[in-house]
Amino acid sequence: MEQLLLALVSMAAGVGACVLYFWGTNKILDGIFPARGQNAGRNILRANSIRPWLFLGPAIALLTLYLIYPVINSVILSFYGPSGQSYVGTANYSWLFSDAGFRESLRNNLLWLFVVPAASTFFGLIAAALTDRISWGNIAKSLIFMPMAISFVGASVIWKFVYDIRGENIEQIGLLNAIVVALGGEPQAWITLPFWNNFFLMVILIWIQTGFAMVILSAALRGIPEETVEAAVLDGANPMQIFMKIKVPQIWGTIAVVWTTITILVLKVFDIVLAMTNGQWGSQVLANYMFDWMFRGLDFGRSATIAIVIMVMVIPIMIWNIREARKDV
């Protein structure tokens, strides 16, 4: 009860502070440049040119504090040793490309990049197309979207039960092993199987992101002009041809944006790996490897170097994503 009350007070205080800030700054601005007197016109123009910055100011300040400064600091730290005090030049980068753990993390991240965005977008597109054709489509969409409301750690706990294994002659409570045993097979410790365990972890993120892809693509499908579909029907196209040759090409920009958005998320995947395997059994990824060097290896230089690699991989995709989104607008 106390935590709920504290949360409500925090929300009210935050909203109240925002309202007070915007009201107060506008009041001060109107006082400095009053819309009356001989210079009323000039004052109005000056006030209107400054006013947008009053709204953007807090966001810019927070971005500078929590985004720009950490990036600059990480770049600097990548040239220093474990304590962040002794300058080591490019030694961290030399270590990075000769380290077996980094190569494993990079290989696994690339595997995630090939599988997760493609699978999430594909299943999201199929779900969007099918749910729009059934009477209980909104209920189906709600169920598919529901995993998006679960944190990555919460989803990992759920799937740990799915992959759970018990000893011989003990009833399997893990759904996957229960099915395997019912079909006459032997239960497996799925998340400890090198290489294949990566796919079992990917399933969790695909399960979560399919709902996101479905919502965005469903809106795009509904925005397709009916005239194009009607023309295809008159030309004798079947439903599959209409979907693949008429609808998909018209929403290809949206598909690309969804794909790249999930790609950026995959490059930063951390929670699932930490909660499920902690990078063991050949399942390490870059973000988790960075976490290990920062909080377990206590090496700020090497962890910052890995962070720079992740940032370098994310930036081109993010720029392309923004350009595609602007094209759609």
Describe the structure.
- InterPro entries: MetI-like, MetI-like_sf, UgpAE/MalFG_permease.
- This is Sugar ABC transporter permease.
- 74% of the residues lie in helices and 0% in strands.
- It is globular.
- α4 packs parallel to α8, α4 runs antiparallel to α11 and α13 packs antiparallel against α14.
- The chain is an all-alpha fold.
- The two termini are 45 Å apart.
- The chain is built from 14 helices and no strands.
Topology at a glance:
Blueprint: H1 2-32, H2 40-77, H3 91-96, H4 100-131, H5 137-145, H6 152-162, H7 175-182, H8 196-222, H9 226-234, H10 239-250, H11 252-267, H12 271-276, H13 286-296, H14 300-328
Keywords:
329 residues, mainly alpha, globular
Task: Characterize this entry briefly.
The chain has helices at residues 2-32, 40-77, 91-96, 100-131, 137-145, 152-162, 175-182, 196-222, 226-234, 239-250, 252-267, 271-276, 286-296, 300-328. By secondary structure, the chain is mostly helical.
